[in-house]
Amino acid sequence: MIAEIIVKEARQNRIDGFVFVEFKNVLSASEVPWSYLCKHPNFWYADNLLKVDPQKDCEILKFKKGDFISEKDFHELIRTLKQAGQRLTDINKKQKNDWIGDKKIIITI
User: Fold this and answer.
1) Which residues contact 76 (CB under 8 A, 6 or more apart)?
2) Are 67 and 59 in contact (CB under 8 A)?
3) Can you spell out the DSSP letters for 65-91?
4) pTM of the predicted model, to two decimals?
5) How far is 43 from 83, CA to CA, in rounded Å?
6) Of 28, 70, 84, 98, which one has the fewest beta carbons inside 10 Å?
7) pLDDT beyond 90 at 109
8) pLDDT higher than 70, residue 104
9) How do 68-70 and 15-24 pair as beta strands?
10) How far is 29 from 9, CA to CA, in rounded Å?
């Protein structure tokens, strides 16, 4: 599943940027592995907000529909979201490879 953050171009106080329109398929904190949330960057959806934790000792960024973000900050946000998405992909692959089932399967030939 790929998270989608839909924006539209906007201008506010003579600053070019974007307005958040919709957040689709953004996972909640309960839907991602704890190891993903313990390190940075990461992002999740809660309380109708996109929450982004870009780095250690940094304030969590919160965005809701209708919020404005400057073009410069938006490009930084996209970079952070891509890094976080790659981290989650890597964690999920590792967990899938480390999984060992406890159910016995008997194959009769």
Assistant:
1) none
2) no
3) TT-EEEHHHHHHHHHHHHHHHHHHHHH
4) 0.80
5) 10
6) 98
7) no
8) no
9) antiparallel
10) 29
